[in-house]
Design a protein that fits this description.
2 copies of one chain form a homodimer. The first copy, chain A, is an alpha+beta fold. The first copy, chain A, folds into 2 domains: 310 residues, BirA Bifunctional Protein, domain 2 (2-Layer Sandwich), CATH 3.30.930.10; 91 residues, Rossmann fold, CATH 3.40.50. Chain A contains 16 helices and 17 strands. In chain A, strands 1, 5, 6, 7, 8, 9, 10, 11 and 12 form a 9-stranded mixed sheet that branches. In chain A, strand 16 and strand 17 form a beta hairpin. In chain A, helix 1 packs antiparallel against helix 5, helix 5 crosses helix 11 and helix 10 packs antiparallel against helix 11. Chain A starts with 24 loop residues before the first helix and ends with a helix. At the A-B interface, helix 1, strand 1, strand 2, helix 2 and strand 3 of A face helix 1, strand 1, strand 2, helix 2 and strand 3 of B.
């Protein structure tokens, strides 16, 4: 029979596409563990999981996503129907589209989470890959203060679920406070404010001198720069007095609420937190690792208004954040918070002779029926060889039997971790295996 | 502060990209339930989960994937580094690449599963979407007979986990048996055999007359056609005698093993199962829904040799199948096997006054700490309004309190399903809530 045979003349690479990762079983076990904990904590706050397609209309991103992403980092293509579609670089536009589609049906407040994979064309480096996964948590509707208090509490609780709550700090700011400070207090023009925001956003990555030079370029005078520097180290009580505005009041109330929610000590006011120039309009925040060797923003988010407007739907304010899997994994590794994982294989039922296969299969079925993960050798083999195979496959227990055991209706159950072994009737093997594994 | 504001002049559509689906919380709850059961059963057979990137080198598919998919159905693009990359249309090439990369490290037999989303450009129709998810299960290495017996047993057990084992039939064939029958028994040329295989593959979709016409076109004589028709209704015992070959022997042994594994009654020999012209080289199979209204192949797979060859690695034979989520969902719906899902929200803790928020937060934290999913209203409100909100949000229980309860250190716990309610001390609320929910 003819076979399609288009074997390439040069061997293909076994490497995954640049900036992406393969997940072998142990990587996947870690990922499932990490995502499982994230999902469990999000659900404990009543957030429900959603999902969307991997490809979306290009226009969805052109409308609201930051220009850098759309122009330089988007993977896109033209389909056979001449539609311009993109591989999703972020989840919020999909969320906005889905909420807009059912804006009159979804009961408010709308609490949602998802853990999608996202794509951005960028030079791979620590913590930045072309494909990564990101926990997205959003709440739409509700009183903004209560919603933000809940979301920031959840952010801390997510880290607590990994044992990392004491190693992070939530830095909070407000866009309207910054507006008031730049335009009213400093008297900057809108264009100057725009440049200053950009510079502050990149402040962590450059020297003090470079930052100062940027300010000068933006036309910020020496006295304004001093005021700015002083502002950067103010606490919220001072700010409420010196820059009285809606944003400052909002933050002060928010901090009081966060104390009630038991996370007050993890949250601080930080006016250098800007979160770029994208769709945030109110409270913005970043979660920092407090360890000296990893001191950087791990994830962040903020309040957005009217993301639904691009769909011609009513304005609905929301607040959300996105937490990348690579940053979280780095955090867990840095702090030794990743556990050792046990093998997922509980038992191997060996097979010494072909004619014993029916018996072996019955034992295997029985063990699976009590919830155990059971493998077989997929070939007949000697006692020694199959024991080696069980070890290589990381089975915790092995069921072994030969002619003698078969005559007695018995098996040898061996604990591969301790070396302990016991000859028991086939009827007892499930109970004993479960006992050893518990 | 300047904001990027590129609001489109025309409202964007809230529809997902054609041929894809949005997963709202209830859809996602179903999907998580379905995938959770699939993963649990695969794990019970010792299969370990893996994952790979969503985009792969185009060459990976050009080498082995069927021509129809590569030429007509692949989503691909050229990246900024001039690499031709494709959105994965199937998972097996990724599996082959990953196994090839660690061919000397992975302990054999290698048992793997994954539930990736896959993309094909096709006209959306029942059971065929542009994006779908697919359980992929593969075992590489091991004695082919034992490996196939295990994999087919797993296929039946997957359906049994949904209560559907009695409603399916596994139809099995062997490529080498068909080779022997076409070339030796019928005496067809290789080119003729190729045409006949294509026709048999499409047999289900055309009339008897059309099929006959295709055979005539392929140069199949009347006597050969009669022989073919007779062959199509033969059982394996007859075939072993009339077309003695490696493939027939293999199938006879395989059926005996499947009896030992307790799934003999679900498996039949069916020489019309061809599985296209792609990489299968030995046993091939399809799982059919036996209900008259849905009688069609739900999923299938087969044995492949040397998928690792394209990477310049040693030949390693494997057997696997892919089960699409849409077909499975159709099957479950057809047979009424989808359960009603309970709400994921256990409790809503209401808030009558701002000054009681600290108390409400403490109760909320306590309830979450015993594993419950708890929401708050995110605003203060009257007893009646918040009770309505709790119902709309599908909470099972509500914690209510006013001035009287606060003075007593008590709350009113209400069961929203039964209407039952009880006034208890805040210290007792966790125990009572758990009791009602269990």
């Amino acid at each position: 029979m003819a076979q399609t045979n288009r074997q390439p003349s040069v061997a293909l690479s076994t490497e995954p596409y640049k900036g992406t990762r393969d997940f072998y079983p142990k990587d996947m076990q870690f990922r499932n563990w990490m995502f499982g904990k994230l999902a469990k904590t999000a659900r404990s706050f009543g957030y429900l999981e959603y999902g969307g397609p991997m490809l979306e209309s290009f226009d969805l991103y052109a409308a609201k996503t930051g220009e850098e992403i759309v122009n330089q980092q988007l993977y896109w293509l033209i389909d056979k129907g001449d539609r311009k579609i993109a591989v999703r670089p972020e989840m919020t536009p999909t969320l906005a589209r889905m909420v807009a589609a059912k804006i009159n049906e979804l009961p408010r407040p709308i609490r949602l989470f998802s853990i999608p994979n996202l794509w951005r064309y960028e030079r791979p480096q620590r913590g930045r890959l072309r494909e990564h996964w990101q926990l997205n948590v959003d709440v739409l509707g509700g009183d903004p203060l209560y919603a933000e208090a809940e979301l920031l509490t959840l952010a801390v609780e997510l880290m607590r679920s990994f044992g990392g709550a004491e190693r992070i700090q939530v830095k909070v700011n407000h866009r309207k406070l910054m507006d008031a400070f730049f335009t009213k207090t400093l008297g900057l023009s809108s264009a100057q404010a725009h440049q200053v925001v950009k510079a502050i956003d990149a402040k962590d990555k450059v020297s003090e001198d470079k930052f100062k030079a940027w300010m000068t370029e933006a036309g910020v005078r020496e006295d304004q720069f001093e005021q700015l520097t002083r502002f950067f180290s103010s606490d919220i009580a001072t700010v409420v007095k010196e820059v009285p505005c809606e944003g400052a009041d909002h933050l002060q109330k928010l901090f009081a609420m966060l104390k009630e929610s038991g996370v007050g000590s993890q949250v601080v006011f930080d006016p250098t937190v800007m979160r770029g120039l994208d769709y945030y309009t109110g409270t913005v925040f970043e979660i920092y690792d407090t360890s000296p060797e990893n001191n950087r923003a791990m994830f962040g988010g903020g309040r957005y208004d009217n993301l639904m407007g691009i769909f011609g739907k009513e304005a609905l304010s929301g607040v959300g954040f996105g937490m990348g899997d690579v940053s979280l994994q780095n955090f867990l590794d840095t702090h030794g918070l990743t556990p050792k994982f046990a093998s997922e294989i509980d038992v191997m039922v060996t097979l010494p002779k072909e004619e014993y296969r029916a018996t072996a299969e019955t034992i295997t079925r029985d063990l699976r029926s009590v919830g155990l993960n059971v493998i077989t050798p997929l070939a007949i083999g000697s006692f020694g060889n199959q024991l080696k195979l069980a070890t290589r496959q990381e089975a915790k227990l092995a069921v072994l039997f030969g002619d003698d055991e078969m005559k007695l209706g018995a098996v040898l159950l061996k604990n591969l971790a301790t070396g302990e072994q016991v000859t028991i009737s086939t009827a007892e093997v499930c109970a004993k295996a479960r006992q050893w594994l518990s």
